[in-house]
Design goal:
This protein is an alpha+beta fold and 797 residues long. The chain is built from 24 helices and 22 strands.
């Protein structure tokens, strides 16, 4: 019996190719979207949860209280030294100095010397790092990292340096001066971890690699650094409050009265990936939003199937009537339709898997270039699909199967379908479909405008054609030579030696003490560092006083307008000549010589804060070169040639300031792209739903259309008649969805300190677009019905 059901189901699927193709396409797109979002969400939720002690491992985070909290993901070596001997409820303490950059030289006996720039790919760790976290050792062991100048590397690094030969015991040179011995080989880091580096150097090597490291780095509890992270393994989760209290007590001993400005707390290892205030990659709220979108897309696909199924199955009323006359029960007819739905959904699932397999590498190449999505577990995806398939069969098939199986035998025999004509359910489904699509259109549109605003708005300085080149060292002789060479280049308009350019992720700054005021200010000031050309090269505007001059005896400072207001002053000239002590510059007392117009030193996520610009040559790490944009390629080639004359043993690299600024908003850009893709899919599936409904109504009104044509109705009259009801549903969707879309996008955009204004015309344009797409979809079937031969239409009755 079941076999006959499947045979009949396949025959009906082949017989109605057009409707079958629409059904499979709609379901396939919805399922593919849900599978893709499941992969994306589950991938991010899995970060660093595979470590065996993950549930009781925590990272120490800090908040520094001024007039508002300043979030600091890093810790201090002094804190590590205080905790390392052990405190109650803590089984292990480990520190990592991560994201370090070195030039690595590899000497091969039979090959010429090779150099590699390891940009933020080196970490300094103690041996117990590999006891707290799980790594797959191929050879060597962590105990050898007790010695200075030792390192372990991953397979990928080993292949890059030594090919297929054994790396153990090999010597590599750091920054052309410090030999380091390879003592261990690790398997490559899993994709789903934020604790990854290509090379792990012993913490005991720190002084050899950085001989100028000040003593305060090791002794000052408040010397926090974003690259220094501290992790604790607790006895159990319940001990977290007690450990936080113990850390606070130790801070009070080390910092004295200043401890009131610091608050340390423990972040679970599994949450580290999500808290963007502390360097997390993605917010959990984004994953929840994507999960909701995935569910909505599946619902739209299911609703689309319901509408089209009812439309096509209404042609089978005679078959239903015959089955019932011959003794068929409602359950048997219900089962027949459910089996047909099962076959359709199964084909759609197989098609969707093929689509995801094809699309995922493309998405990783164009959407997730920084962090490609990986399929971590085939078992999990099989379980997900195994749950999704029956759920979708019930969602899509139950309603049409239930309705069609309960048709009265006499009504079926007479082909009576009139009672479906005003079906509220179908209209509700269409309204829901179009509402979701409209909301996604609005969100995508606003996100595009906001991201464009962030990357193109005036941020108070010149960023066009500015190329950034790392500065390996700060020797004055080399800087003077480069300065002379760049001054002779016609493509170079200006250049500056600086720490970092504006609008970077640099959070360098600290507290300040102004003039003769007895107390330090209760707010922090950012601290851009650059030479006397910093103002010119970035196009900053001095509105009072003069530019800084390099002076080690009496430091000079520039401040911005916001700092003037924070100091409670109205006239920029009032600060000229006044003294300023900057905590971030080792409490050096200097003189304010000028005021610059406000500019964005960080991303537009945060408002402009007080800034102190100083010339501190020992902190220079970058050359920012403003080009005249006539021949950028030729200019880069010349810059490289001059740079390599000064640093022949270094690896040249560069990037443009515009690219760096765009990188600040990569999270927002990714959200915008994902929402845009989801919105496009929702529109496509909704159009299929409209096509199914217009097919149903056209079928039900076949006789009416024929009569109208016979009595003189034109094609346009019939098209308008058939389109009006559908357009009403679209307009209802817009009215319902507009306030919801405004609420959603308003919550998202309020997270930005600088944002576009949500204008009414955005909703109008999105509404017109929705109406236009719906009209095109409706017109396809309406025109087909309107130009049909009325004789054939009347014969169908």
């Amino acid at each position: 019996m079941i076999k006959n059901y499947f045979i009949i189901a396949f025959r009906n699927l082949i017989k109605r190719k057009f409707y079958s193709a629409i059904n499979i396409l709609g379901l396939s797109l919805g399922i593919a979207c849900s599978i893709f979002l499941y992969l994306f969400i589950s991938y991010h939720l899995s970060f660093d949860r595979y470590h065996k002690n993950a549930s009781r491992t925590y990272r120490v985070l800090n908040e520094v209280y001024f007039d508002k909290p300043v979030y600091e993901k890093g810790a201090s070596m002094a804190m590590y030294r205080a905790l390392a001997p052990g405190i109650a409820n803590v089984t292990d303490v480990v520190v990592v100095l991560g994201n370090y950059t070195f030039t690595v030289t590899v000497n091969e006996p039979s090959k010429r010397e090779r150099r590699f720039k390891e940009d933020k790919n080196v970490a300094l760790v103690p041996p117990n790092w590999f006891k707290m976290f799980d790594y797959d050792w191929i050879s060597g062991n962590a105990d050898e990292l007790n010695l200075p100048n030792t390192a372990v590397i991953t397979q990928r690094q080993s292949l890059k340096y030594f090919g297929n030969s054994n790396p153990i015991g090999r010597i590599i040179i750091f920054d052309n001066r410090q030999p380091v011995k390879i003592v261990g080989l690790l398997s490559d880091n899993p994709a789903n971890t934020d604790l990854k580096s290509g090379m792990y150097v012993s913490l005991a090597s720190l002084k050899n690699l950085y001989p100028d490291t000040p003593d305060k780095f090791f002794t000052d509890w408040g010397w926090t650094n974003s690259t220094t992270s501290l992790y604790l393994a607790l006895t159990d989760k319940k001990s977290k409050p007690a450990v936080e209290s113990e850390i606070a007590a130790l801070a009070k001993i080390s910092l004295g009265d200043n401890s009131k400005y610091y608050h340390s707390w423990l972040q679970p290892l599994g949450e580290m990936h999500f808290n963007t205030d502390y360097g997390g990659t993605i917010q959990k709220s984004v994953l929840v939003t994507l999960m909701i979108i995935g569910i909505l897309i599946i619902l739209i696909a299911g609703f689309n199937y319901i509408n089209i199924s009812v439309a096509q199955q209404s042609k089978r009323l005679a078959e239903i009537g015959t089955r019932k006359v011959l003794g068929g029960t409602s359950f048997q007819i219900f089962l027949q339709f459910m089996i047909e739905t099962f076959i359709m959904v199964t084909i759609a699932v197989i098609t969707a898997i093929g689509l995801v397999t094809f699309i995922l590498p493309i998405a990783n190449q164009f959407l997730f270039t920084q962090d490609p999505v990986h399929l971590l577990s085939y078992n999990n995806i099989i379980i997900f699909i195994s749950i999704l398939l029956p759920a979708l069969v019930l969602l899509s098939g139950f309603y049409p199967a239930f309705i069609l199986s309960r048709i009265n035998v006499f009504g079926a025999a007479k082909n009576v379908t009139g009672k479906w004509k005003a079906g509220i359910m179908r209209k509700v489904l269409v309204v829901i479909q179009n509402s979701v699509a409209y909301i996604l259109i609005i969100c995508a549109f606003i996100m595009v405008l906001q991201v464009r605003y962030l990357t193109h708005t005036d941020i108070g300085f010149n960023r066009d054609a500015v190329v950034l080149v790392p500065l390996p060292d700060t020797l004055q002789l080399k800087k003077d030579f480069l300065r002379h060479q760049f001054q002779e280049m016609p493509q170079v308009e200006s250049f500056t030696f600086c720490y970092k350019p504006p609008s970077s992720e640099n959070n360098f700054g600290g507290s300040v003490k102004f003039a003769n005021r007895p107390d330090w200010e209760t707010w922090p000031a950012g601290s851009p560092v650059g030479d006397t050309s910093y103002v010119k090269s970035f196009g900053l505007q001095i509105i009072a006083g003069r530019n800084i001059r390099e002076s080690k005896v009496s430091p000079e400072y520039l401040v911005n307008e916001t700092m003037i207001r924070k100091l409670g002053l109205k006239n920029p000239g009032d600060v000229i000549g006044k003294s300023l002590i900057a905590g971030q510059f080792d409490d050096q007392k200097g003189t304010i010589v000028g005021v610059v117009k406000d500019f964005n030193s960080r991303s537009l996520d945060v408002p402009i804060g007080p800034e102190v610009i100083a010339c501190v040559p020992e902190k220079f790490s970058t050359i920012a070169i403003k080009l005249n944009a006539i021949d950028l390629l030729s200019a880069i080639i010349n810059i490289r040639k001059k740079w390599e004359e000064v640093y022949p043993q270094e690896v040249f690299e560069y990037h443009f300031l515009d690219d760096q600024i765009a990188g600040l908003y990569k999270k927002e850009a990714l959200q915008q792209k994902l929402i845009s893709i989801a919105g496009s899919l929702a529109i496509i599936i909704s159009c299929l739903g409209l096509l199914g409904l217009v097919s149903l109504i056209t079928l039900q009104r076949t006789k009416e259309i024929g009569i109208r044509k016979v009595v003189g109705a034109s094609v346009s009259n019939i098209v308008v008649m058939l389109s009006t009801d559908f357009l009403k549903l679209v307009f209802i969707s817009i009215l319902i969805a507009s306030p919801i879309a405004w609420w959603i996008i308003n919550k998202w955009i309020n997270d930005f300190a600088y944002r576009i204004k949500i204008e009414w015309w955005v909703f109008a344009v999105a509404g017109l677009f929705s109406v236009f797409v719906a009209l095109i979809t409706i017109s396809f079937q309406a025109i087909k019905a309107a130009i049909a031969n009325p004789v054939n239409s009347l014969r169908t009755e």
